[in-house]
Predict the 3D structure of the following.
Amino acid sequence: MPSYTFKQRLTLAVVPRLASLIIRCLGVTLRYEDVVDEGAEAGYDLPSPAIYTLWHRTLLTCAWRFRNRNIAILISESFDGELIARTVQRFGFVPIRGSSSRGGAPGLRNLERAYRAGQICAITADGPRGPLFVAKPGAAQLATLVGDGVRTFYVFPEWAWQLRSWDRFLIPKPFSRVLVTWPRKAPANTAAVQEAMDRSVALAETHLKR
């Protein structure tokens, strides 16, 4: 168990509660719309287990859209990761601690156990520190371990505030339309996952121009 300062403990006691309240209030105003690529399927009701990847900047919009589905998600062991973990637990996610850098191997092993137990597993492709829109090997490594492919998606609000963080984190504006794009399933290699993730972004950009 990490040792936190008094200020950090106070932050952990307050911020996840406040963040979850804000997400709930904001989430009920959002209008989600699926954009499914040719030959692909929206992932909500596909059979488990499965592996999904998302971009780090979309965590907030994903938390509301995919709530209460018992999804195991790989989250950094950093203090910021602890804040995220405690927040997403309030929406029915199962945090698996680790990352593609520090603590990556234990995190992948725990995700593998979750997959083999029949759960959906999710990884932020470019987390926890980027660079932005660059897929790391974690999802492909997990897919190789379990003999599966990787399903990718992008959850993009039409109107949003964009933070100046490395991931250009997105906070959707109330009553925004939010596109959920679904490319075809990617085989278990990092280049294919990167291509599918790029496709998920391109689908959103193309749809918004219509």
Observations:
- The beta strands are 31-36, 50-54, 72-75, 94-97, 120-124, 151-152, 154-157, 160-162, 170-172, 177-182.
- The mean pLDDT is 93.
- The longest strand covers residues 31-36.
